[in-house]
Amino acid sequence: MKVLVVTQDFGKFKKGDLFKDPQGKKLFQSQRKAELYASSYSQLKLMDLPQGYDEQTYEVICTEAQPEKWTKAGEADKSVQPTVTFWEKDGVKVYEEPSDSTGYDVSTEVDDSYTHVPAVQEAFSIEENTSKVSSKRQSKANSQLDALRAARKSKLEDADYLVFKAEDAQEDASALRTYRIALRSVTEEFKKQDGEAKLATESLDVESFDWPAKP
User: Are residues 191 and 104 in the same domain?
Assistant: First the structure.
């Protein structure tokens, strides 16, 4: 599937937006249609959607163009490769002008104390925003934990009833109390076993969940 990315501000669109055609569509099932838009507007770039694209968690990343430069701590960046001047005599180089430069050859060489940073071309990519993914997964995990707690509520009410009933009959209720404690701890124990991460990426069937065994 194709998508058109806005590479320059134009009309109501801003650089980095996903372009919508007049019908309000961002994605183009027809490659030919997408190519026609891209060829008609120099401000649009035709791109493939990444596998598993999700509009809520993916975004367009724009890498701004940067010229090459040379950098050095404590010094201003240079746009051309820096050089140093040296004086040479009898195969010996000095980097400060001698008080008597008679017989010295003066020349320059690359100043290798600077680090070269290559030029960067403007580029666009569609990538997963990890913070959005984390937020979405946490929301899903919270929702499924809420469903787990809701399903546990009736089980706890039943356990309370059985404990009170056994106590009233002066029967041994220790196994039922242990069962009730296990029910109360089920969400925390599940998360300790990396269950929260599972909840964030998988679906939970509360009916088939491995509940504590009822005595």
Answer: no
* Token pair in block for residue 182: 């296990």
Q: Indicate the residue type of 16.
A: G
Local structure of 64: helix, strand or coil = coil
Same domain, 92 and 13: no
Q: What's the chain's average pLDDT? A: 88
Statement to judge: residues 30 and 113 lie in one domain: no
What percentage of residues in the chain have a pLDDT greater than 90?
53
Confidence of residue 21 (pLDDT cuts 50, 70, 90): confident
Cβ neighbours, 10 Å, residue 148: 18
| Residue 195 domain flag | yes
Within a domain: residue 60?
yes
For residues 57 and 90, membership in a common domain is answered with no
* 176 touches 165 (CB < 8 A): no
Of 53, 48, 45, 51, which is closest to residue 13 (Cα–Cα)?
45
- Asked whether residue 113 falls in the same domain as residue 150, the answer is no
pLDDT of res. 195: 61
106 and 85, same structural domain? yes
Per the model's pLDDT, the better-predicted residue between 149 and 207 turns out to be: 149
Cβ-in-10-Å burial (0-12, 13-18, 19+) of 128 comes to middle
β-pairing, 2-6 vs 44-48, is antiparallel
User: Can you give the residue range of the structural domain that contains 46?
Assistant: 2-65+120-128
Residue 160 has pLDDT above 70, yes or no: yes
Tokens for 207, please give them: 């009916």
